[in-house]
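User: Structure please.
Assistant: Input sequence and predicted structure:
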Amino acid sequence: FHTPSGEAYGRVVVGDHRETLALRSAIGRDWLTRLFFLETRRGVSAAALQEATGTLSGMARFDGSERPVAVRLATHDHRLYVDLGDPQWRAIEIDAAHGWRVVTDSPVMFRRPHGLQPLAEPARGGTLADLHPFLNLAGEDDFALYISTLLGAYRPTGPYPIVVFAGEHGTAKSTAARVFRRLIDPNTAPLRSDPRDVRDVMIGATNGHVVTLDNVSRTPDWLSDCLCRLSTGGGFSTRTLYTDAEETLFDAMRPIVINGITAVPTRGDLLDRAVILTMPVLSDRARRAEREFWQTFTTAEPRILGAVLDAVLT
């Protein structure tokens, strides 16, 4: 099949489950190489692999059906599906009439970019209050804003607010951002440094559901404009490598999380989209060792995620 933008994909059987692979990606070529070896017990030549990939891509684009492909979450038939990211390619199905459950074969075509990590398997019996000890927020109002923006990030389409964690050094801004992302879109690089240009931002946005920028010291005009477009929807085009006339298009709308000592935006259009949470100074008694903190959070995480899913239903 192919996506609305014409990218060729295949839905393939791997072991006891099915996976969605971009045919021209490295993992798509690896799957074909493995399949050839299992059939013939010998390696495939580069020319044969290129010919097979090209043939399958042509079939997908001109003979296959058109289907959307999603990263981490999407809707289908009035249900929300969240990719668990586990080796079995399971997903969480969220149905307003029947609640949430883990399913083994999602109707949504999920793709898994490099760096995507599994969510904790959700468990029942937790409450949103269980998240409170893991956040250094100024009070209940800020906690309510944190929860509201997290639940808003579970919407499959925006517009989304830009969550800004601001405060002095050592106020657990990065920790709050990491917790936010772990509860919806875990990644091997959960926090990214200042992007160099719009292309960097858009590539990150197309390869994850949440964009997180860490230790931001300034928001130049180009970055402010880019984040505004990403929050409410917008595209970016650039010339495709090794071509003269073809364009590569990036189009995304994503939840955005920023933290930094001086990360508070100043431009009006960015401020209109921002939810700013100023972190209070942590006392020495309140500080915890990094390892101890994440061990405790990992234990509580399944119940916290289950409580978040319960709240998404309401």
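The radius of gyration is 21 Å.
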